[in-house]
Specification:
With about 80 residues, this protein is an alpha+beta fold. The protein contains two helices and four strands. The radius of gyration is 12 Å and the shape is globular.
Length: about 80
């Protein structure tokens, strides 16, 4: 992920969104993964950046890219 991309992640069972490269969360916390992903996806689309979902905060092999950067979709 590049700085500025949106990441949805879980910390202590609560879901959050943040801008990659920043330590603070973006908006509120979420009880469900689905709600956090919906908000994270929307924020990424508005900023035209990638969105990833991580099972837990910190380095993990369990990261899935949810959205592709709009520039990558142009072919």
């Amino acid at each position: 992920m590049a700085a500025g991309d949106i990441e949805t992640y879980r910390r202590n069972g609560i879901w959050f969104n943040r801008i990659e490269g920043e330590s603070t969360t973006l908006g509120m916390s979420f009880e469900s993964r689905e709600d956090a992903v919906k908000v994270g996806r929307s924020a990424a689309a508005a900023r035209q950046v990638d969105h990833s979902v991580r099972a837990d905060e910190g380095p993990s092999a369990d990261t899935s890219m949810y959205e592709r950067h709009p520039r990558e979709l142009i072919a």
